[in-house]
Amino acid sequence: MPIDIERREATALVTVNRPEALNALDVAHLEDLHDAVDSLRSDDAVRAIVLTGAGEKAFIAGADIKYMRDLEVLAAREWGALGHRIGTMLETMPKPTIAAVNGFALGGGCELALACDIRLASANAKFGQPEVNLGIIPGWGGTVRLARTTSLGFAKELIFSGRIVGAAEAESRGLVNHVYEPGELLNAALELADGLTAKSPIAMAYAKEATSLALQGDHKEGLETEARLFSMLFASKDQREGMTAFIEKRDADFVGR
Ligand code: CAA
């Protein structure tokens, strides 16, 4: 299968499976990734998603350059839009998405990692937006998300120069949350995801919605949204259960309502 989906209780592990091309995304892989993310997004049994790449060398080495070389303008527009749809789903679905970056995350690979809520990396991971070397610019959200995740100056430096950075520099810039030894990365990502699946799904969805507004749109609107979502949670069973469990000194059993 172009994309493997492994269900591990409430966590879904999504693996781009094209190691012979460093998991570069051609049409079959990009379309299958779209469908995989779309189906997991609306599956209530899935409460967290981990995205990674097959093999030990690459997360995703970008969009497939051999496919893109002969694209015309309209086809390139559709190709960009398909990548954007995947990024937007990862960014907005009401459950946490985690990128386990196990090697090269270049071009579209870096962009899809940036669309995830949290990025964990192996010590051998490499990040970059080398599109300028191909005579193009990032097309799956990198110009916006790299700047919002790190800083405008750092994003411009990477996008203008095509420079590739290692995991330590990526961590120092806020591009990744934590760095692990290669053999430990996937377990760390799954452990983080499993921990998140034990929280109230409704509180998680609202936490993601409100936090995602921090760097988008209007400051006042963000605060108003937070206030609205915060108060709405007091209509949920999970709020009652979470607070009761604290008072009764036991683990909460959340139902997502
Ligand atoms: N597209 C197509 N094939 C790719 C690829 C890509 N993005 N990245 C790697 N591959 C293929 C190589 O062509 C090679 O295949 P063959 O054996 O058939 O020649 C195979 O994967 C292994 O790659 P290398 O031999 O190049 O491996 P390496 O270890 O010497 O180098 C690398 C690794 C530095 C990542 C190098 O492969 C590379 O520079 N890849 C391209 C990275 C890139 O430019 N990505 C951005 C693409 S543009 C984009 O993503 C646009 C967007 O915003 C949507």
Mind explaining what this structure looks like?
The protein has about 260 residues and is α/β, with parallel strands linked by helices. Helices cover about 50% and strands about 15% of the residues. It has 2 domains: about 5-195, 2-enoyl-CoA Hydratase, Chain A, domain 1, CATH 3.90.226.10; about 200-245, Orthogonal Bundle (Lyase 2-enoyl-coa Hydratase, Chain  A, domain 2). The protein has helices at about 25-40, 65-70, 75-90, 110-115, 140-150, 150-160, 165-170, 180-195, 200-210, 220-230, 235-245; strands spanning about 5-10, 10-15, 50-55, 60, 95-100, 105, 120, 125-130, 165, 180. The strands form 2 sheets. It has a 6-stranded mixed sheet with strand order 1-2-3-5-7-10, with helices on both faces. Strands 4-6-8-9 form a 4-stranded mixed sheet. The structure holds acetoacetyl-coenzyme A.
In short:
This protein has 257 residues and is an alpha/beta fold.
Write the layout of secondary structure elements.
Blueprint: E1 3-8, E2 11-16, H1 27-41, E3 48-53, E4 58-60, H2 65-68, H3 73-92, E5 97-101, E6 104-106, H4 108-115, E7 118-122, E8 126-128, H5 142-149, H6 152-161, E9 165-166, H7 167-172, E10 178-180, H8 182-197, H9 201-212, H10 219-232, H11 237-247
Parallel strand pairs: 2-3, 3-5, 4-6, 5-7, 6-8, 7-10
Antiparallel strand pairs: 1-2, 8-9
Helix pairs in contact: 1-3, 3-4, 4-5, 5-6, 9-10
